[in-house]
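Consider the tokenized backbone below.
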């Protein structure tokens, strides 16, 4: 009898647990559905189909009416858009539910990781005389000023909303170049963090040169400007690494291993990129209807290999691996130069002393 009672009460407990689990899942699903409905109601003007680069029907729709109206008097036809804007139109390619899930997960997890990782970043020693040793030289500052101004000019004189394209990664790098060069009282620590991020994001500059998306470049000389400014972006990390002012290797006597330093800066680069583009830029993309950094629609890739409901996860994996690869290449190259050829780099001067002894 006792055995039967134990078995019976065990079945009852399992049944209650299952019922409780079903209730929790139902509640979670209901909350997600409510949040997704609210999100869609905030941006009803976005269409729910991919906008093709070329006109198909002669009356292709790029945006619905302000409140989601779909009649001909309310919608925005693609043929009526400013020249160059059509390829940048954002849509509900991903469902609102997917946006809510990815935004909530990424923001929560990455902010937690950032709170743990940021205090552990190495501190770059400040110059005793108060000067920032990481200010670019005059020739790089001149380049930063010129191309920052050109960027503002091209983005502010293009199609409506093009100014928001400053949020594209390589344009953000020009903003960082301007800050490094001219922001008053920029601390050495902040400058060092910018330089370390730039090293990782160099892979994005190379990708933009290898697989350029020039579909919205319609202004005079904008196409050559695009390629020139991307090539010039490579000068900044090369200068800092070759001058020894910044290193991909751990500081001397820091007690940190190469592997620890490598993965710390790589993780920080991924976290900052994710927070900026998912937490901040995705809502801005939804609000503006502009596909900023391809947060609403997949990027153009050979054979559309990055597409489907998981395209942002695929992009995230590819971007993270590109950061990993470029840092690995630069770290290996620097290690060879500093330890084998004994190059006179200022940051690792103590390594040369150790090798000499």
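A designed sequence for it:
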């Amino acid at each position: 009898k006792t055995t039967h009672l134990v078995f019976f009460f065990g079945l009852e407990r399992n049944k209650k647990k299952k019922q409780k689990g079903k209730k929790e899942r139902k509640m979670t699903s209901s909350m997600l559905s409510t949040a997704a409905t609210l999100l869609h109601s905030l941006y009803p003007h976005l269409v729910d189909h991919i906008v093709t680069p070329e006109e198909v029907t002669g009356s292709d729709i790029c945006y619905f009416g302000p409140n989601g109206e779909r009649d001909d008097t309310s919608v925005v036809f693609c043929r009526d858009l400013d020249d160059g804007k059509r390829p940048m139109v954002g849509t509900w390619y991903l469902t609102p539910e997917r946006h809510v899930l990815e935004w909530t997960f990424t923001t929560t997890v990455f902010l937690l990781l950032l709170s743990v990782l940021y205090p552990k970043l190495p501190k770059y020693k400040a110059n005793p005389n108060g000067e920032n040793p990481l200010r670019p030289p005059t020739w790089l500052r001149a380049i930063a000023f010129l191309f920052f101004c050109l960027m503002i000019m091209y983005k502010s004189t293009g199609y409506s909303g093009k100014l928001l394209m400053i949020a594209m990664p390589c344009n953000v790098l020009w903003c960082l170049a301007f800050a490094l060069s001219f922001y008053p009282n920029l601390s050495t620590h902040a400058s060092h963090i910018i330089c370390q991020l730039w090293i990782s994001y160099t892979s994005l500059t190379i990708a933009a040169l290898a697989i350029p998306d020039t579909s919205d470049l319609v202004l005079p000389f904008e196409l050559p400007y695009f390629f020139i400014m991307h090539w010039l972006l490579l000068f900044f990390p090369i200068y800092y690494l070759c001058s020894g002012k910044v290193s991909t290797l751990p500081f001397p006597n820091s007690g940190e291993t190469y592997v620890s330093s490598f993965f710390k800066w790589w993780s920080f680069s991924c976290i900052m990129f994710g927070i900026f583009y998912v937490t901040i830029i995705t809502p801005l993309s939804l609000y503006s209807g502009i596909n900023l950094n391809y947060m609403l629609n997949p990027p153009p890739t050979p054979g559309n290999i990055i597409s489907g409901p998981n395209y942002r996860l695929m992009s995230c994996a590819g971007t993270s691996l590109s950061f990993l690869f470029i840092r690995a290449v630069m770290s290996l190259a620097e290690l060879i130069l500093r330890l084998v050829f004994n190059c006179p780099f200022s940051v690792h001067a103590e390594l040369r002393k150790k090798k000499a002894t």
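The mean pLDDT is 86.
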